[in-house]
Amino acid sequence: MSAIRPRSAGHPLRRMWGLFLRHYYVSAGSWTRLVEMIYWPTVQVVIWGFITEFLYTNSSFVARAFGVLLAGALLWDILFRGQLGVAVSFLEEIWSRNLAQLFTSPLRPAEYIASLMALSLVRTLLGLAPAAALASAFFGFNVAELGLSLIVFFFNLIVMGWAIAMVVCGLVLRYGLGAENLAWALMFALAPICGIYYPISVLPEWLQAVSAGLPASYVFEGMRAVLVDKTVRFDLMVQAAALNLVYLVLGIGAFVAFFRNARIRGQLVHVGE
Predict the structure, then answer these.
(1) Which of 73, 78, 66, 44 is nearest to 197 (CA)?
(2) What is the domain partition of the chain in residue ranges?
(3) Cβ(161)–Cβ(120) under 8 Å?
(4) How far apart are CA 176 and CA 170, in angstroms?
(5) pLDDT digits (tens, 9 = 90+) for 210-224
(6) Which of 63, 143, 165, 175 has an alpha carbon within 20 to 30 A of 72's alpha carbon?
(7) What is the CA radius of gyration of the chain?
């Protein structure tokens, strides 16, 4: 098939940019989509901000590091938004019955995946910025207090989100829109064992073993080490990065396998039906 590709297909970056622009114009032309990007992170920060205000005067743990719950909420939103940014961008192509049309163009799966990740990165930053500003203005917590560790936390969490989203997108290709709820349900199923608001040590031993296989667990433990103990745990970040590398490769591999199967079976045209 590659031998008959038209020479006018252009550079891969141009095709990726075209896909990026498509979603940009869709989002920019809909105020409801823009509000949705900002709404949930903002609501979450407000809720946990008031909880933190209460616990600050009632908990010695929180008193040692004001903002530890807000930091957990903000970092969790990076993971959730990163995953949702890929999954929803993919689902929008199915909802609009545009997936088959995309792949009748010279667009390759690798280019499509890279575009989805770029979209996810932009959506996550757009959603996080107002929430972080609100946390600073209303509750006096500046997420920049995490220092350079914040950059490592951010990329570890968003990459984990991408890996999960790739599997979800692949399952939607295989099983249709009946699997689309996994885009939301799967992340919330993992939330209790990631140690977002509490140390992993409070979990039962068998759940601690499961948690040890999740990159996010090391990120949240590292976050508490910075805020509570004032130490940077490089060992935790290395473990998170190593797990993320494995999961991202497996996630992309799963998506590509499901995609090839769907193309052979002719499901790209009927996946939204």
Answers:
(1) 73
(2) 10-270
(3) yes
(4) 10
(5) 999 999 999 999 998
(6) 165
(7) 20
Mutual angle of helices 149-175 and 109-139, in 10-degree steps? 130
- Under a CB-based contact definition with an 8 Å cutoff, are residues 157 and 219 in contact? yes
Are 85 and 168 contacting, i.e. CB atoms less than 8 angstroms apart? no
Distance between alpha carbon 183 and the CA centroid of its chain, in Å? Answer: 10
Q: Is a pLDDT exceeding 50 seen at residue 2?
A: no
Tokens for 191? 């939330």
Query: Taking the model in full, what pTM does it have?
Result: 0.78
Token readout for 236 is 């935790």
Packing angle of the helix pair 12-28, 31-56 (nearest 10 deg): 80
Condensed to tens digits (0 to 9), the pLDDT of residues 120-154 reads 999 999 888 888 888 888 888 888 888 888 999 99
Residue 151 has φ and ψ, to the nearest 5°, of -65, -45
CA distances from 12 to 8, 18, 177 (A): 11, 10, 29
Other beta carbons within 10 angstroms of residue 107's beta carbon come to 18
